[in-house]
Every structure is written in structure tokens, then in C-alpha cells.
Amino acid sequence: MQEIFTLIHSHSRFIDIVVECSANLLNRYYSLADRVSVLYAAVALDPDTKLRYFEIEWCDHPDWILLATTKSKYLWTMEYRTLQYIDTTLAQPSPTPTASTGFLILPDDTLSRWKQKNRARLTHGESNQFDRFQAAEEEEEVPDILAYWAAQLNNPRWSQLAHMALEIHCIPAMRAEVARAFSR
Known about the structure:
By secondary structure, this protein is mainly alpha-helical. It contains nine helices and two strands. It has one domain. Strand 1 and strand 2 form a beta hairpin.
């Protein structure tokens, strides 16, 4: 009986050490994650989760929620908020005056694109796209986040945020070999 007790005791001590080492490694990774704003922004820019994810999952840790929100907004403010609206539709031919009237003839959709851009600017003024996106309610689930944000590039309401989201969500997931190299 003593042998069994010794075997169980030594085995449980081994498990305790493994669990402790694993917890230390996870804590190290979590502390490193706090330094990278992109990790928080990736969740915040997912139309299905936004910052609400942190509020729901971390409801017992308001300091974590504040950190995620602050890091996401800081990245937006410092890197992307000042981007100018870039119309990524195909370039239209330059307007040319007609010989008979001397008036300019504009391509068919030039006026509608101009109105859309100015309506977005006037309606939303200098408001923050990041905050407006967080407050907006999504109507349906987004199956492909990259396609969603690619479609928003020509929307003056979300164009700057779309650039941020595409840059962040195009970062490839980490592979196991890279994680091992990082750990070393």
C-alpha cells in the first residue's frame, strides 16, 4: 500500500509541476499580447463581435475591457484616422467639353459618387469612424470578413476603417514553428 501511495504522490507532484509551468508560459504569452494593439483591434473590427466581445467575455475584468478598448482606439487614432478618403473604383475618363455647347460631359456615375462622398462627410462630419462602427448594429452575420471590408473600401462612411481592418485581418495566423522560435 505504501508503494501505491508513493507512486500516486510522485505522479501528482509531476502533474503539479507541469500545470505550474504551463500556467507560467500562458501568463507570459498573455502579458506579451497586452503589448500588441493589433490583437485587440482584430476583434474590435470583426462586424460580428466588435468591442462587445470583450464586454461579454470579460465582464468580471473591467480593467481588461478598458485595456482592449484603449489599445484598439489608440491604434486607430495613431495610424489610420488621418487617412484621406481614397476612391478605389476604376478611374473615370476626364470630362471633356463638347464641341457644340462647350459644356463638360461627366461620366454617368460621377455625380452620384460625389453626392455619396459629400453626404457621408456632411452627415458624419469629423466623427470617428471607429466609434460609429462600434455603435452601428449589424443586420446579418458576416461570413467572410475580408470580403466585407473590401466592399467597404468605396464607402466614404467606412473607407478609413476598411483600410485598417484589411491590413489587420490580412496578417497570417501564427504557425507552430514560429511560436516555438518565439518561445526560445
